Structure formats: C-alpha cells, structure tokens
Amino acid sequence: MDSVIALLKGYALRTALPTIGFTDIIEIIIITFLVYQIIRWFRSSRAWMIVKGIVVLLIFTLIASLFQFDTILWLLSNSLTFGITAAIVIFQPELRRALEELGRKNLVASFLSFDNTESGEEFGEKTINEIAKAVTEMSKAKTGALIVIEQAVALGEYERTGIALDAKTSSQLLINIFEHNTPLHDGAIIVRGNRIVSATCYLPLTDSLELGKELGTRHRAAVGISEVSDSYTIVVSEETGGISLAHERRLIRNLTGEDIKDILMRISTEKESEKTKFKLWKGLRGHEDKDQR
C-alpha cells in the first residue's frame, strides 16, 4: 500500500501544474509588451511584407521536411547563414530607426498606451470622388500635386519624413495643400483609408532610364515609391497640368479626373469583393463546424 501511495504521489508531482509567482507574471507582461511592440514596428514598415515572405519560406521548409525533400532541405540549411546576413543588411535602415525610436520613447507611456494608430476607416467612394474632383481642378489650374494612396505595404517610414495631419480627405483640403507658396505644397501627401495622414513627405526617386527627360521630380518620385510598395500615386504636372498614375513601376500618363475615379473605384470594388469572399468563406466554415457538432 505504501508503494502504491508513493507511486501516486510521484505521478501527481510529475503532472502537477507549475506554480506561477509574482516574478513569472512580470516576466509574462514584459515579453507580451516586447512582442506587441515588435509586431507593431513591423506593421508600420516595409519589413512586414518581407516577414510574410519569410513565413512562406518557413512553411515551404516544413513541407519539404514532411515529404523528405533532402536536396531542398540541404540547400535551405546551407543558405541559412547567408540568409541571416542578408536579412540584417535588408533590415538595416529599419533596425537603426527602431533603435533610435526606442531611445527617444517614453517606455512607461508606451506600456500604458495601447491605442491603434490605424484609423480603421476604409478607402471609400466619397474619398475617391473628393480626390478625383481635386485632381481635375488642380489640372485645370496647373497646380503640381503628388498624392500617394497607401495599400497593403505600410508607408510609415515615408510618413515620418513629412508633417502629420490626420485629416479627413476633401477636395478643398487637397487643393489648399498643393496651392503655390503654401507651407505644405512641397513634397507628397500620404492617404491611408479615408484620411490624409501626412504632408510634405519625401519619396525615393527612381533610377529608371525608361522615363522621358521631360518628366520632373514628381513623376520620378511617383515611380520610385511604386518600386518599393504597392501604392497608387497620382501626379499632376505643374508645367502642363497633365495627370498621371504610378503603380507597380509603371507610369500611366494623359489621364483625366474621370479616369482616376474609375481606376480608384475598381481598386475599391476589388477590395470589397475580396473581403466579401473572406466573410463568406468564414460563414461557410462556421456552418460546417455547427453541422459537424
């Protein structure tokens, strides 16, 4: 009987839940805060898309391991060292900026603040109409403009080069921003959702030799930002009043305000369609789960 009791006690000790002390709770809170800040940093930079690519690569590695693709696994394992070095080089500007922000940041305020920086407002028909109206008016007056419409790739690092606005998009505001001799007319504005988040932003210039010599800095900046993101950038020429649109390293010229409206409406419709399909898929999955129960 004593041996049975001893055996049960030993089993109970092995299966007992570990005790959580005060230091463990503090440690969990600190780790949670650090993970939250890292994810938030990734989401506000171009690194987020690279992280998605790394996740896809890890999934591919897992599949190769399951099916025992020895040659692929050998290549992946031997290129890991070079991959880490390449990641450090690729992320070097973002890592430096993150460390600089860490040095300037009030950690206590950051810890207590969990506000979402994203407005949560969608890029809707009203915003599209306001942008198209403003572009048409600026084209007639030959007012130079550079409007960047953010998509999946976050433009936080370019947003920080300008002056924060966080204003609802309207044609009057857009025209006033790009009016000659106003403080905010130089540089680009960034539109996220239905809001103008920043003005006088500096964008990278393209090195492409395909652009004509007659095109100025605005057009080169529009193509440059399209090379590093999936944004749509509208350009109004100050010399000719011509309207152009840059996306995926291409520049479409000689557009009208109605053309811009049609293109942006198509983008918005495609987004809504994708969201509807996702919601429908989730609904179907929910019904399947209920049926299985």
Mean pLDDT, rounded to whole units?
78
Strand order of the largest sheet: 2-4-3-1-5-6-7
Helix content: 55-70%
Q: Which stretches of 5+ consecutive residues score pLDDT under 50?
A: 107-120, 284-293
Shape: elongated
- The SSE string, one letter per element, is HHHHHHHHEHEHEEHEEEH
Total number of helical segments?
Answer: 12
β content, as a range? 5-15%
Gap between N and C termini, in Å? Answer: 44 Å
Overall structural class, as computed from helix and strand content, comes to alpha+beta
Please summarize the sheet with the most strands. Answer: 7 strands, mixed
Number of strands: 7
Nearest-angstrom radius of gyration? 26 Å
3D architecture notes:
By secondary structure, the protein is of the alpha+beta class. The radius of gyration is 26 Å and the shape is elongated. Strands 2-4-3-1-5-6-7 form a seven-stranded mixed beta sheet, with helices on both faces. Strand 3 and strand 4 form a beta hairpin. The chain has helices at residues 2-15, 22-43, 47-66, 70-78, 80-90, 92-104, 107-112, 125-141, 156-159, 171-177, 217-228, 257-292; strands spanning 145-149, 163-168, 188-192, 195-201, 232-236, 243-247, 250-255.
List keywords for this structure.
293 residues; 7 strands; 13% strand; elongated; alpha+beta; disordered C terminus; 7-stranded mixed beta sheet
Record the SSE blueprint:
Layout: H1 2-15, H2 22-43, H3 47-66, H4 70-78, H5 80-90, H6 92-104, H7 107-112, H8 125-141, E1 145-149, H9 156-159, E2 163-168, H10 171-177, E3 188-192, E4 195-201, H11 217-228, E5 232-236, E6 243-247, E7 250-255, H12 257-292
Parallel strand pairs: 1-3
Antiparallel strand pairs: 1-5, 2-4, 3-4, 5-6, 6-7
